[in-house]
Please model this.
Amino acid sequence: MEVRINDTYEEMSAAAAEFVIRQLRHKPNSVIGLAAGGTPCLLYQLLGDACAAGEVDFAQVRTFSLDEYIGLGADHPQSYRYFMEKRLFSRVNLAAAHIAAPDGMAADIAAECARYGAAIEAAGGIDLMILGIGPNAHIGFNEPGPCFVPDTHVVELSEATRTANARFFARPEDTPHWAISMGVRDIMLAQNILLLSSGAGKTEALYQAVCGDITPEAPASVLQLHRNALVLADRAAASRLPEKYV
Ligand code: GLP
Model:
């Protein structure tokens, strides 16, 4: 695991955009895994800007969203599919047929999980997985628990995660209780992983991810075992990391 610290959120996002653009130039038909949430917003904006400026081309890129709330459709403003549409897909030249996301409205959610995992595999796996991190060190919606769940699965969201994500909903009680998430194996099979972490609210989670024991109680800690995991953090998130990183 490599860790790079930037002074600010803006610098971290610019470094992330540069990393993604380098990946797409190196492999124009890359398969990218995409996290939603507040942290990657500026990264996606910068990728949209770069595409508009002709600096990067998404024509052959394929994407897989990392997770989705159950019960929210693609047209629901708080669904991750809607988020990705607004933040990235509508701003780059990505083909509609190259966009994949778990369907939170599927009638048979177990079948949907199986379908989604198989679709990732059929695409040849993920070349670059873009991750955020929850305040409890979750990745995707892989919540802390007694074991890692390998495959795409249904998750009952913890109260900590519902509280953290309530800011996106009109009323806190509207925050869904259930989600579909790629599993830890889905994530760990990616060729490259880019984890973004910003702000003082992530300090403890980032410490657990980088320096803590590798344990499903801090799901992001598993990334320590990945061959090509890059952590980009701003100073606020990195404030507990040991001297050698800072
Ligand atoms: C959410 C998402 C994750 C995201 C994380 C951090 O619950 N499921 O994919 O990375 O929490 O979100 P944020 O960047 O808004 O802090």
